[in-house]
Input
Amino acid sequence: MKIKTLLLGQSLILVGGTIFAWSKLLGQFDNFKMVYGTVFRFKDCVISNPFLTPCFWGSMAFIFATVWSFSNWLKPGYTRQRYLRNFLLFCVFFAGSVVAYEFIEYYKLFGANTVSISCAPGVFPLLTPCFTGLLFFFTAYITAIFAVRRLG
Output
């Protein structure tokens, strides 16, 4: 497989993750604004402000990784792709830790008074958008591993 094809595939995976993540996040912003009339309320909220959720940071990471990936597709380079691979590994750990926390919260392992960080409280963790985001990040990470090997 040609390196340009592999890098394009990686970029398209990240585009899919970006579209998925932002489609979920924009719904959160809409719900929050309907309840509070603004998206800039940060205290005394029953619903978490979307700016403070892992969904927002994961969505931003998708945008960052997608732009970086397309940049690598246009001008392939070993070092740039290796750094992107490392960033994607961080994203996998970040999303994985959020899913792990959702499991803890779902099974109430730390008691009933844990702070919810999920955008889908009460939903089984493998059915949440965070888990789907984790799969996108993981797939892009695996692709990045192969790309680094081809470039090296």
Q: What stands out?
A: Residues 3-151 form one domain. The chain has a mean pLDDT of 94.
